[in-house]
Amino acid sequence: MQITTxxxxxxxxxxxxxxxxxxxxxxxxxxxxxxxxxTRVPGFRPGKAPRGVLEAVLGQGAVLDEAVDRLVQAxxxxxxxxxxxxxLTNANVEIVQAVEGKPLIxxxxxxxxxxxxxxxxxxxxxxxxxxxIDDGRVDKVIEELRDQNATLSPVEDRVARKGxxxxxxxxxxxxxxxxxxxxxxxxxxxxxxxxxxxxxxxxLVGLKVGEAKGFDITFPADYGDEALAGQKAHFEVxxxxxxxxxxxxxxxxxxxxxxxxxxxxTLRTEVRKRLERNALDKARHEFSDRIIExxxxxxxxxxxxxxxxxxxxxxxxxxxxxxxRQGISDEAYSKVSGKSHEELHADFRPDAEKRVRVLxxxxxxxxxxxxxxxxxxxxxxxxxxxxxxxxxxxxxxxFESERGRNYIRSTLRRSRVVERLVDEWLAAHPDHxxxxxxxxxxxxxxxxxxxxxxxxxxxxxxxTVMEHADSPAPARAG
Length: 478
What we know:
Layout: E1 2-8, E2 12-19, H1 21-38, H2 51-58, H3 62-83, E3 92-97, E4 104-111, H4 135-148, E5 151-154, E6 165-174, E7 177-190, E8 212-218, E9 232-246, H5 252-257, H6 264-297, H7 305-325, H8 330-337, H9 341-369, H10 375-388, H11 393-400, H12 402-428, H13 448-456, E10 475-476
Parallel strand pairs: 3-10
Antiparallel strand pairs: 1-2, 2-4, 3-4, 5-9, 6-7, 6-9, 8-9
Helix pairs in contact: 1-3, 4-6, 6-9, 6-12, 7-9, 7-13, 9-12, 11-12, 11-13
C-alpha cells in the first residue's frame, strides 16, 4: 500500500492512499459473502446467493461499493497508524479510482490538531489601569440609592412634565377607522421615556389630570407593523393619573435606612470602599484581557473548521438561553428578525473563531508553562456542580462524564495560567499598586451559561484537543 501526505489549509492533512489491485479483488469476495449472508434472496440459503443474483436484487455495483467501503475503512486506519496522524474527527474521503482489476485509490482530507505557534506573551509594555474613585463617583451612587428608594406621590396642582409617571386612555384612528392595537383604557408610562411612537409622549406634557387632547402623529418608517409604518394616525388621549417621583433627602436618616450605618458619612465611606474594590477587580480583569489579546495577536494558528463550527453551536445555544430568560423562543426570534438558522450561524462565526483562537492559545501557554490541574481540583468542581445545579441533571451528568471533566480541567487551566501571568507581572513591578483577586477558588474559571451550552450539545473543549484525539472513521464524500 502506497501512502503519501501533504499539509492542507485550516489545520488539515491530505492523505492519498493506493491499495494494490489484489486487495480490492479479495475485498470484493468478502463483500459478496457478507451481502449474501444478510440479504434474503428467494431460492438461496443465507450466504449462498452468487454475486450476479445479489446485484440483481440490490442493484448494479452494490458489491463493489460494499468492497470499497470495507477496504477504505481498513486502509484509512492503517494509513493513520503508519503516518502517526491523530484526527480530530471524521475525514472527508474522495474515491479517485475504484475499478476491479486496478488499484483502489482514494484521498482523505483529515482534520488534525492545530499547530499553535506562540509568540511573545510576557514582554508587553502596557500596565494595569485602576480607575480613580473621587467624590463625584460616590455622589452618583448615593443618587442612585435615593432613586431606588424614591416614592411616588400624586400630582394635583400642576401640569404633566417629563419624568412624571402617568396613566392614560387613548384611542387611535387612521382615515377615521380604528386599527388593531390602537387603543387602551389604562396605559402606564413614564413621560419622556419614549416607549410609544416617537413624539407621542411629548403631546402629554402640559396636560392636567382629567384633561384630554387630540393630535395627529406619523408612525416611523421602520415601525414593526408594516400596515402602519410611515402612516399618519389621529389619537384622542385622556390623562387619567399623574404621579411624581419623590427622592428621600440625602441625610443621616436616609443612611440609617440603608443598613447598619450611623450617618451619611459612614454610608459614603462604605460606598467608596466598595467602588475601590470594584475598581481593582475591574483593573485585574481588563489587564488579563489585554494580556490574552497580546498573546493571541502574537500567535500563529490555523483554525480547524470542526472546532469553529462546534463553537458556533455553543454560541447559538447560549443565545437561545438568553432569549428564553426573556420569554422569547428561538422560533419567535427568527420570525421577528427575519434571520434563518444559517444566517444566525454566519453572524456567530467571527466571534466563534475568536473564541476558539483564544482557547487554543491559552491552552498552549498553559502547556508551555507546565501548569496542570489536579484530579482533586476537578473532583471538587464536580462536587460543587452537583450542589449548584441540583435541578439540572443533564448538566450534572455532563460534568461527571470524561468529556465534562476535561472541560472543567481545560477551563480552570486556562483561567489559572492567565492569573499566573498577572501575578508574575505584579511581582516584577512591586511599585505598582496591588490588584488582588476579589474571589479566589477553582470555580472562578467555569462560566455557568457557557457550561450549560457546552453540555447541551455535548461539546469537546477546544483546549483538550491539544492533549487528546480520537481516531474516528472516514466519511466518504459523494
